[in-house]
Amino acid sequence: MTANLASFLYLVSGVLFIMALRGLSHPTTSRQGNFYGMVGMGIALATTLLYATPSFGGLLLIVGGIAVGGTFGAVVAKRIAMTAMPQLVAAFHSLVGLAAVMVAAAALYSPESFGIGEVGAIHAQALVEMSLGVAIGAITFTGSIIAFLKLDGRMSGKPILLPLRHVVNAGLAIALVVLVVMLVAGQSTTVFWLIVLLSLVLGVLIIIPIGGADMPVVVSMLNSYSGWAAAGIGFTLGNLALIITGALVGSSGAILSYIMCKGMNRSFISVILGGFGGETAVAVDDGLDRTVKQGSADDAAYLMQNAQKVIIVPGYGMAVAQAQHALRELSDKLKAHGVEVKYAIHPVAGRMPGHMNVLLAEAQVPYDEVFELEDINSEFSQADIAYVIGANDVTNPAARDDKTSPIYGMPILDVDKARTCLFVKRSLGSGYAGIDNTLFYKDGTMMLLGDAKKMTEDIVKAMED
């Protein structure tokens, strides 16, 4: 295969990746977007193999690696529960970062294979690109592992605030710049691995101060990091497809991080410098009567059957209980009784962007019934029932009314403006942000305490009876 043909095919794969991102921007075109992405990646892989023309032994190693990695990925993706999808994404990001480090190391020890010079005489430009790729890759690797541990509950969701952490991080960043200069000047393998080591440490220190409430932003941010790491290595390899793909992932991840921060009324810098969130709500003396009105499935069924409009607000509690199919059955029952049903999705509901949309799509909820916050928030005041199923922080009125609250200013779903708010939750505990939800104690709220799936199924049975 000629270089011109390879460049053309890489360009085709890049266009398909752009079409994939465009398709994934809306639920109705997401399947088509996935298809474009898979075809683009297939073309990129085939082009790389044909253009590189490896030896028979090398080809066997490549095919074997693809077979092992592909099988492992398929098995993990098939077995993983939808509730653990954010953890899976974080884990995969770590592998992208590790791959960037390994490719950079291979280029350092065998530069003639990559066309960037010889051992001890690597082009300065390639060394700079290599340094950026390996630093970002190592940060992504350890940062993604910490994010995985926090999301999976194997590490506390509370921010871990080390003393002088900003000074330490700034010192490590300066040291990395100095080491990059030393690598370009001396091409020392020791300096290269020092860059890797400091970057691995920096990845841990950047993520551990970020609390549970900011984890959706972290997942998006690490996605961006992995893209920039791939783009940096793409320049080192002179691989057009890798450059295009990395730039697309890096820029789209950065934009999504900005959108997520806006949805939480948080600045990106404040997230990086240390977020909020934990497992336990802090008791506050705000003079609020903390008496709750608790109801049953029969009460909820009666109210819903006599309503004209019901807005369903899914959250992470629905994901944990895997209640999306029961929710779809409830929705069908309500529509059979002539009740108008809509779904309201907050931008940061769940543990990663689009988490709730994927779960509802899995239950075959019609796309035209699902609305984003800005499109449906004004309708809560005309709704008879707001059925909140595990969405805690994104419905907390404190974000709108309490200037002393850590989440003050975060856009929320105004479920308290509905005539009645039915709130399904296991207990009165705090959400992932570790903040008490004042919605529980409002006059128009009825708490339905219990497992989200069982409670929803009991409501459906009560409606049938």
Structure report:
With 465 residues, the protein is α/β, with parallel strands linked by helices. The termini are far apart. The model is unreliable at 279-285 (pLDDT under 50). The protein is built from 17 helices and eight strands. The protein has a six-stranded parallel sheet. A two-stranded antiparallel ribbon has the order 1-2. The chain has two domains: 80-273, no CATH class; 297-464, Rossmann fold. Belongs to the PNT beta subunit family. This is NAD(P) transhydrogenase subunit beta.
- Find the count of extended strands (DSSP E, 2+ residues): 8
Q: Choose one word for the global shape.
A: elongated
pLDDT averaged residue by residue: 86
Number of helices: 17
Query: Helicity range of the residues?
Result: 55-70%
The largest beta-sheet arranges its strands as 5-4-3-6-7-8
Any low-confidence stretches, pLDDT <50, length ≥5? Answer: 279-285
Strand content: 5-15%
Distance between the termini: 70 Å
Going by helix content, strand content and strand pairing, the class is: alpha/beta
Radius of gyration over all CA atoms, rounded: 25 Å
SSE order, one letter for each helix or strand:
HHHHEEHHHHHHHEHHEHEHEHEEH
Overall structural domain count: 2
* Major sheet characteristics: 6 strands, parallel
Protein name: NAD(P) transhydrogenase subunit beta
EC number: 7.1.1.1
InterPro entries: DHS-like_NAD/FAD-binding_dom, NADH_DH_b, PNTB-like
Catalytic activity: NAD(+) + NADPH + H(+)(in) = NADH + NADP(+) + H(+)(out)
